[in-house]
Write a structure and sequence with these properties.
By secondary structure, this protein is α/β, with parallel strands linked by helices. The protein is built from 18 helices and twelve strands. A five-stranded mixed beta sheet has the order 2-1-3-12-4, sandwiched between helices. Strands 6-7-10-5-11 form a five-stranded mixed beta sheet. Helix 17 (393-409) runs antiparallel to helix 18. The longest helix is centred in the last third of the chain and has 20 residues, at 414-433.
Length: 434
């Protein structure tokens, strides 16, 4: 996920917790039977390992003032040489880790750093009912029924951003929350024009997030059969036909030999009417913050198979690890990271966070800038369930992107593209299963 966009889109822009406990595969001993692990003497040092973009120098200074007795170091995973593998190789302790989405699975579970946080959740009175339930379910799924982490950092979901000037130019009514995909793609066709030597495109989106984090919750690999879903789950074909089968839009991309997939610059350069991307770009993109274009946003449109449902919520998940040196100190910091005290100020600024209680809904984006935008679009929809992850997902997502582009360019018809994507994806799965 891209750090600037809070993505690990990526980077979507999920984390494990605690060290020294038995994993969820083993029965927890009774409290009386648990050995007492002495904490290290002297001041605690805590390495906070995360690419979460809200952990700024200013935020870190406040965190250190909150816990003056602890030495808190931030290790930014978006920097070269700071991956989990790098830290393990160089012997740098990982006391608290925070990753979003599949990044948590890769960094914590695959690296065997995971610890079931269930006892700590109970001890520190953390109420999981206050968090987005699909996200909690995702964590339980990758935790063998336990809880390897707790959501509590910045989160992302997907929205539609639109350039109001292009709508005004062509006399097309603005988008609104609660639209369907069919309605939006009809608007996209009306905005796709050439005028005064300038080519305008009605719609673009980042294909990686549109498929991997799809709002229908379709996994790229069927967990029961270990086969690709692209040509067997009929929802994919329906999705492709509605979004990637728009004649007017596709003809414009073919004519100009222009890729369909795009990101923030497509909107800010002033030639694209509608962009699907991560909600966080509204807070971190200079042109949007300074309103160098006349923009607004609406909720993600829905499919008939999942009405009023947007994308999954992809949040940073915090966890202790098997390397955590002082679990008591680290847990005190972690409890703060997932607390209302820490998260409500972020929500007021317009950051999506994983808590869904009334104060967060009522006060969301109350201090967001620029003012006057449709910030409530961020929390308008229900959240889709997380697709079940597979280690082949990244490669399969790239295959999907390739064939979607071929459909739009007209070099491959849809049925052939779905079949060829399935064949290539199966080869990846087979190679990763050996």
């Amino acid at each position: 996920m891209n750090r600037k966009l809070h993505l690990a889109v990526a980077s979507l822009s999920i984390a494990a917790m605690l060290a020294g406990c038995s994993s969820s595969n083993n029965p927890e001993p009774s409290e009386a039977a648990k050995p007492v692990e002495p904490e290290p003497s002297g001041p605690a040092e805590i390495n906070l390992v995360t690419p979460d973009a809200t952990i700024t120098a200013e935020y870190l200074e406040g965190l250190r003032k909150k816990f003056p007795n602890y030495t808190i170091n931030h290790i930014d995973q978006s920097q070269k040489g700071k991956t989990i593998e790098d830290l393990i190789t160089t012997g740098v302790p990982i006391d608290i880790v925070g990753r979003a989405g599949t990044g948590f699975y890769s960094d914590v579970v695959n690296m065997k750093l995971e610890v079931d946080m269930s006892p700590y959740i109970k001890e520190y009175n953390i109420n999981l009912n206050e968090f987005e339930p699909q996200l909690i379910q995702y964590i339980r799924t990758i935790s063998n029924g336990g809880m390897y982490g707790i959501p509590g950092g910045s989160a992302i979901n997907h929205l539609l951003f639109y350039n109001k000037s292009i709508f005004d130019k062509f006399g097309v009514p603005y988008l609104k929350d609660g639209m369907t995909w069919t309605e939006v793609m009809d608007v996209a066709a009306k905005l796709t024009r050439s005028e005064s030597g300038v080519n305008y495109y009605g719609f673009t989106g980042h294909l990686g997030v549109m498929t991997s984090w799809n709002q229908l919750g379709i996994s790229l690999v069927d967990p029961k059969t270990n086969k690709p879903t692209i040509n067997t789950d009929e929802r994919w074909k329906s999705y492709f036909q509605i979004v990637y089968g728009n004649p007017a839009l596709n003809e414009a991309y073919r004519r100009d030999n222009r890729a369909f997939s795009g990101s923030t610059t497509r909107l800010t350069e002033g030639k694209t009417g509608i962009l699907l991307f991560n909600a966080g770009i509204a807070l971190v993109t200079k042109e949007m913050q300074e309103e160098t274009i006349n923009w607004d946003m609406v909720s993600l449109p829905s499919f008939k198979e999942a009405q009023n449902t947007g994308s999954p919520m992809n949040s940073t998940i915090w966890g202790l690890t098997k390397q955590t040196r002082n679990k008591k100190a680290a847990m005190e910091v972690l409890s703060y990271l997932v607390s209302d005290e820490n998260l409500l100020p972020l929500a007021k600024k317009g950051y999506l966070v994983p808590k869904i209680t009334e104060p967060f809904i009522k006060n969301f984006a109350s201090e967001a800038k620029p003012a006057g935008k449709n910030w409530k679009a961020v929390i308008y929809n229900k959240y889709a369930p997380f697709p079940i992850t597979n280690k082949s997902d990244a490669a399969i997502s790239a295959i999907h992107t390739k064939y979607i582009e071929s459909i739009i360019k007209g070099t491959t018809d849809m049925n052939t593209a779905l079949r060829m994507a399935e064949e290539e994806a199966q080869k990846v799965i087979d190679a990763n299963s050996r």
